[in-house]
Amino acid sequence: MKEAPLRVALADGVARVTLSRPKVRNAFNTEMIDALRETFERFNNDDSTRAVLLTGEGPVFCGGADISWMRASLDLSHDENLADARAMSAMFRAIDRCSKPTVAAVHGAALGGGAGLAAVCDIVIAAEDAVFGFTEVKLGIIPAVISPFVLAKIGRSHARALFLTGERFDAQRAAAIGLVHRVVRASHLDDAVDETLRELFSASPAATAAAKALIPRVIESSYDATLALTAEAIAVQRTSPEGQEGLRAFLERRTPTFSR
Fold first, then answer.
1. What is residue 65's predicted lDDT score, i.e. its pLDDT?
2. In whole angstroms, what is the distance from residue 208 CA to residue 256 CA?
3. DSSP 129
4. d(CA 68, CA 247)
5. Distances (CA, A) of 217 to 33, 210, 220, 238
6. Please, are residues 103 and 122 in contact by the beta-carbon 8 Å criterion?
7. Count of alpha carbons within 13 Å of 199, Cβ hemisphere only?
8. Which sequence spans correspond to the domains of the chain?
9. Which helix (H) or strand (E) segment is 8 a member of?
10. CA quadruple 160, 165, 171, 176: dihedral positive or negative?
11. Best label site of 149, 200, 209, 227, fewest CB within 10 Å?
């Protein structure tokens, strides 16, 4: 019987999604890709979920693609490779479009598609000894599917340096280029995650989702179009139940009901 590629647990509003293939450094294969897409799509509309935490079991967060999976791709046609890539892209897009805040806790290494997971999550906390790399060119391939998310995180300049060399880099450099938001001692990783979750839980779930949805809309709009877009967005939020509650709580010097 095959082991499940993920372990998923929902408790106290946090969906903990753990990559669970430690024997192969939590590497991607077809089953893991499909499971991640389905999981993030499910939590997208789950009102009981306030945040999604992505972690890896064992010594490594995610080492990229499974060797057996890559070996099988040698015999795939162009169309079969295209279908494979589209499935992986759908997985990353499900994470990207999830309305819940997504937090990645990275330890050990995040390489290739693993670094792509860091790029697509909203908040990334890394152990200080973690290693990152867009290593695809070392294998004669390219970081194509993850590129929209990586470019959005680190920009063209850093992507040109790191995509072309395929070099590995440490957590401090990952933070300097914007791939990682916080670097902590490995022994403090869980505490740092808990601090971030507490911050998220103090915020309005509806406002958090709206703020997340606003970012790509503003980036993809022209300067002139952003006037109407942003004015409408704040008007909607101010008149929403949580917007009303949050403002009233502030004026009345009390904790809003949505804060935990």
1. 85
2. 14
3. T
4. 55
5. 27, 11, 5, 19
6. yes
7. 10
8. 6-201, 205-251
9. strand 6-11
10. negative
11. 227
Q: Tens digits of per-residue pLDDT, 66-125?
A: 877 777 777 889 998 889 999 999 999 999 999 999 999 999 999 999 999 999 999 999
Residues in the chain: 260
Query: Which of these, 53, 48, 60, lies nearest to 21 by C-alpha position?
Result: 60
Give the closest residue to 62 by CA, choosing from 112, 98, 2, 4: 112
The dihedral sign for the CA sequence 57, 59, 65, 70: negative
Tell me the C-alpha distance between 245 and 199, whole Å. 18
pLDDT means over runs of 10, the chain (260 residues):
86 96 94 96 92 98 86 82 93 97 98 98 98 95 96 98 98 98 98 98 97 96 97 97 95 94
Kindly state the tokens that stand for 186: 């490995």
What sign for the dihedral angle of Cα 114, 116, 119, 122? negative
Per-residue tokens: 36: 């991640």
CB 13 within 8 A of CB 208: no
The string of pLDDT tens digits covering residues 72-81 is 777 889 998 8
pTM: 0.94
Q: Are 116 and 150 in contact (CB under 8 A)?
A: yes
Residue with tokens 């389905």: 38
Q: Which helix (H) or strand (E) holds 170?
A: strand 168-170
Topology adopted by domain 6-201: 2-enoyl-CoA Hydratase; Chain A, domain 1 (3.90.226)
- In angstroms, the Cα distances linking 167 to 44, 55, 110, 163 are 34, 23, 12, 8
Q: How far apart are CA 121 and CA 95, in angstroms?
A: 7
Residue 169: predicted pLDDT: 98
